[in-house]
Amino acid sequence: MKLNQTNIEKELTDYLRLVNSIELPASQNDNLMFIYSLKRKPLGSGPYPDVSLFEASNRIFSDIVILFGVQRLLTNPVVGNVRLPFTEYEVALGVEGGNDLRAISDSRRLVGEAFNVAPSFFQSKKSSMIRKLQSQEKADYRLIIFNADGVKNPDYYIEKSEPSMLYLPVNIWVDRYNLI
Predict the structure, then answer these.
(1) Lower CB count within 10 Å: N or C terminus of the chain?
(2) What angle do CA 57, 86, 14 make, to 5 degrees?
(3) Domain definitions of the chain by residue range
(4) Coil vs helix vs strand at 149
(5) Rounded-to-integer distance, Cα 24 and Cα 178, Å
């Protein structure tokens, strides 16, 4: 999907509407069976109807980080002291393998990854994404977008950004309510 100033708000709104259409599993008297249904029973609705609520939640939160991150980049293309030259980003939601986002402007290239992770897993996930981005094709910019609540000091990552590795923390809760 290609995102730019013209379509980002609509794509975000449509995605959030789809998430709100999910029919959540009903609680059961047997807690173990309920937990099992959360972990294994396909939802049957929303952006990922063929996976469980547990798996869909992971994918949805990563997608939301991508969408709000790209919205932020299209609105304000500066990360730390780096101004990005891109007016359109190609994103891949819910996929494993490949990059979550790419952008090209003239001869400048960006590759990026995005994730939403608990603070206890942030460092290992970040390290894994850095290795993935550094092992890929030549790019002028490498970008990691992540949930701001995954770290104690999101501004630290913005400040240490440079073209070879940019960090964009996204506060999905603030961004979501600014969208509405």
Answers:
(1) C
(2) 35
(3) 2-179
(4) helix
(5) 25
Task: Kindly report the length of the chain.
Answer: 180
Q: Which two tokens stand for residue 122?
A: 């942030």
Q: What are the tokens at 23?
A: 């029919």
pTM, to two decimals: 0.90
- Burial status of residue 56 (CB atoms within 10 A of its CB: 0-12, 13-18, 19 or more): buried
CA atoms within 13 A on the CB side of 41: 13
Q: List residues bridging with 76 in a β-sheet.
A: none
Pull the structure tokens for residue 71.
Answer: 């919205």
